[in-house]
Design a protein that fits this description.
Largest sheet of chain A: 6 strands, mixed
Number of helices of chain B: 8
Number of helices of chain A: 9
Strand order of the largest sheet of chain B: 7-8-9-3-10-11
Distance between the termini of chain A: 45 Å
Helix content of chain B: 10-25%
Number of strands of chain B: 21
Shape of chain A: globular
CATH class of the largest domain in chain A: Alpha Beta
CATH superfamily of the largest domain in chain A: P-loop containing nucleotide triphosphate hydrolases
Strand content of chain A: 35-45%
Shape of chain B: elongated
CATH topology of the largest domain in chain A: Rossmann fold
Oligomer: heterodimer
CATH architecture of the largest domain in chain A: 3-Layer(aba) Sandwich
Chain lengths: 376, 372
């Protein structure tokens, strides 16, 4: 990776490499991206995560220069890509970006090696260097044996590896991914996640990845930006997003969660407190972690992950909820169990050796460290 | 549906070639009335070919297939009924829903083509729509349905003929993860309500475990194991089944002897460190000195940060963390033990660094010795 030293000198002190600030983009009267800002350090892998229409792809295309933004600024390593207020717009081909799309965009009439060599050929790099670099990058993505094959003879997963090889062969300053795995079947997708992350880590190129698949985001990312309706709902690492969701939208979008309306009855300022929930005449107070900005007396959502609810046959006393097992589905490494408490159905993830049966009465205990009161 | 609990399906010595390639080799399987059976395996294992032979979309090269009392295919006698004469319903991966038609018309189409009387069409279509919970959306255009609703239209369309057997060919693989999980639960509830015999093809092991009464694991055109989900998972017949269904770490070991139900095993580490002695269940049919495979599920391995006290010396392994994958509800951890990689499923709030020294332990009755 070669970077002009003058660019490094211009880098800001916070360690941010890619910087997006105050990004606004309209389509007609529709505000697709509404004041989005984030920054990532060099070499990091950032995921823009959200449902379709949340503005994640528009943000990515704006970084690539395929959209002109209405307001805000985007810069990489101190080099300004676009800043409409200053009249700056760098064309896409000058931005030194590698891209991998959902459609593989591999040329069918070329061999794998020719496809991968293409970005180097247009840069007029000497033949011997091209051959070395293509061989190296094909080894990295696990296609060394396929170099001479026509691209049409590759499977979907292999074509996507070839597309990745082509994107990284010229050592771009930034890699952009637009749902690259969504055309692959499940097992292959799970395998490719881990591998893509490994390859990115090895080449060390700063990456922005767009997906609607939350498990993909958790597995691959250093940082996640959760988006909805053009805005950022939360920024943070995978663990932070999963264990400390900023609001019920995030906790529901990432992973599976039990969400119940409640009221915070105690908040001690250090982050812990108690929440009261009621359901069909039953009313309990549970110890919990209270999100910042929620005061005692305020309405909140109780948010508990299925793996943080324990179902036992013994009554654990106060704070235990008694219910009936509605469904117990064996998933191999865990049991997906549904327990009815009043009209609410708790989702519980139990160890496969706990043999809970449909119709059984059980007591639910919520782990206070992972029971959250979040903003509705 | 008027007491139709479906028919049995009997497959005897089924064989199907594509050119020189044997796609299905001598496969026999009985599916009971109302049973939900899944054919599970990697692509090319013969599962779809088997289903298509039952459907009448492929002509078997050998063997016999019966649905209820009727022989629908018998290669040796030249019998092969057309799909429409077999009384089956099919649900495919591509929903094949017509966007310009309403839900009602999509479901009624097949009956109209067969010139059923209008009153019969109306009655049967509405009954199928009620069954899948779409009666209220009968007049809605198919383009305005969610992915899950389209799936239900496809199911209603298969049910409208009041078939004796339902055949599913990876119907959920185009849906996203969240919707797929929701549909698993819904399809099981529906199938239980209707009680119709179902054969379901998938490459997704989680789907097979959730939905099936019995799972048929296939590889290279043959059946590897038939059993209920718990049995397939807890007592895999061989290392292919162990690693295809769920995650399993497989270690090459030698059988030293037996103590009741427990096998005594020895592992020769790949990195030259001293041999490890381990104990596990299983190993039926293996003799002393024989090469066997130890299969360990990630959720059955306990990770310790220091040497565990109070455990017998056996089944405690010293290792080094290779890496971890954060999955939200779990943390998957991969540990190097003497050159073998052992997966451990941990609570999501655990934190481990690559290179960290750890100890692993497991109960002998939570590990399985496989003789091959």
């Amino acid at each position: 990776m070669t970077t002009n030293p003058s660019n490094i000198a211009m880098q800001n002190t916070s360690g941010a490499y890619l910087q997006v600030s105050g990004l606004i983009k309209h389509f007609g009267r529709d505000r697709a991206v509404d004041n989005v800002s984030f920054a990532i350090p060099r070499g990091h892998f950032l995921t823009l995560l959200g449902p379709s229409g949340c503005g994640k792809t528009t943000t990515l295309m704006s970084i690539a220069g395929l959209h002109r933004i209405d307001a805000g600024a985007i810069s990489l390593g101190g080099m300004v890509y676009t800043a409409p207020a200053q009249g700056v717009f760098m064309p896409p081909e000058k931005r030194d970006i590698g891209m991998v799309f959902q459609s593989y965009a591999i040329w069918p009439h070329m061999t794998v090696a020719q496809n991968v060599a293409y970005p180097l050929e247009i840069r007029k790099i000497p033949r011997s260097e091209i051959d070395d670099r293509v061989a190296g990058v094909l080894r990295l993505v696990g296609l060394a044996d396929m170099a001479g094959k026509l691209a049409t003879n590759l499977s979907g997963g292999q074509q996507q590896r070839a597309a990745l090889a082509r994107a990284i062969v010229s050592h771009p300053r930034l890699l952009l991914f637009d749902e690259p795995l969504s055309n692959l079947d499940l097992k292959l997708r799970e395998q490719m996640r881990v591998e893509l992350k490994r390859i990115q880590h090895e080449v060390g190129i700063t990456s922005v990845y767009v997906t609607h698949d939350q498990s993909e985001a958790l597995v691959m990312s250093d940082d996640i930006v959760v988006m909805s309706k053009g805005r950022i709902e939360q920024k943070g690492g995978p663990r932070e997003i999963y264990t400390q969701p900023a609001n019920s939208y995030v906790s529901n979008f990432i992973g599976v969660v039990n969400l119940l309306k409640g009221r915070v009855v105690e908040a001690n300022g250090a982050g812990s407190g108690r929440i009261e929930i009621s359901q069909d005449g039953m009313c309990v107070q549970l110890p919990c972690q209270v999100s910042r900005g929620i005061a005692a007396g305020a309405e909140a959502m109780l948010s508990v992950r299925p793996e943080n609810v324990q179902a036992t046959r013994e009554n654990g006393g106060a704070g235990c909820l008694e219910g009936e097992v509605m469904q117990s589905i064996f998933l191999g490494n865990c049991i997906d169990c549904r327990v009815r408490w009043g009209s609410f159905e708790w989702k519980i993830l139990a160890h496969p050796r706990t043999r809970l049966r449909k119709g059984e009465r059980v007591f639910l205990r919520l782990d206070p460290a992972h029971t959250l009161a979040v903003v509705p | 549906m008027t007491g139709r609990a479906g028919a049995t399906v009997e497959i005897q010595h089924l064989r199907k070639n594509f050119g020189a390639e044997l796609a299905v080799r001598d496969l026999s399987l009985s599916v009971g009335q109302g049973e939900f059976v899944t054919l599970l395996g990697p692509s090319g294992c013969g599962k779809t070919t088997t289903l298509r032979c039952v459907a009448g979309l492929e002509r078997p090269d050998g063997g016999e297939i019966r649905i209820g009392d009727s022989v629908v295919a018998w290669a040796e006698r030249g019998i092969c009924l057309n799909p429409e004469d077999r009384n089956i319903g099919m649900v495919f991966q591509s929903y094949a829903i017509w966007p310009h038609m309403t839900v009602f018309n999509n479901v009624a189409y097949g009956l109209r083509v067969r010139h059923a009387p209008a009153s019969v069409i109306r009655e049967r279509t509405m009954r199928a729509l009620e069954l899948v919970g779409l009666a209220d959306l009968a007049e809605r255009y198919a383009t305005r349905l969610s992915g899950g609703q389209r799936q239900r239209v496809a199911l209603a369309r298969a049910m409208v003929y009041e078939p004796r057997v339902l055949l599913f060919d990876e119907p959920l693989s185009n849906l996203d993860a969240k919707l797929r999980e929701q549909m698993h639960v819904e399809l099981v509830r529906l199938q239980q309500e209707v009680g119709i015999t179902s054969i379901y093809v998938t490459h997704d092991q989680a789907e097979a475990l959730v939905m099936s009464d019995r799972v048929v694991v296939m590889n290279h055109g043959t059946i590897q194991q038939i059993g209920d989900p718990q049995t397939i998972y807890a007592r895999p017949a061989n290392s292919f089944v162990a690693s295809f269904i769920g995650a399993a770490s497989l270690l090459d070991t030698t059988l030293l002897g037996r103590n009741g139900a427990i096998c005594e095993l020895v592992v020769g580490p790949r990195d030259g460190s001293p041999p490890l002695r381990l104990r596990a269940e299983g190993g039926e049919g293996a003799v002393t000195g024989q090469h066997v495979v130890l299969s360990l599920r990630p959720e059955d391995v306990t990770l310790h940060l220091s040497q565990p006290q109070g455990l017998s010396h056996d089944n405690v392994l010293r290792g080094e963390v290779i890496d971890t994958v954060y999955l939200g509800s779990f943390l998957d951890c991969c540990v190097n033990v003497g050159g073998f990689e052992i997966g451990v499923q941990l609570d999501h709030y655990e934190q481990l660094a690559p290179g960290q020294k750890v100890f692993l332990s497991f109960e002998p009755d939570h590990a399985l010795c496989l003789a091959e």
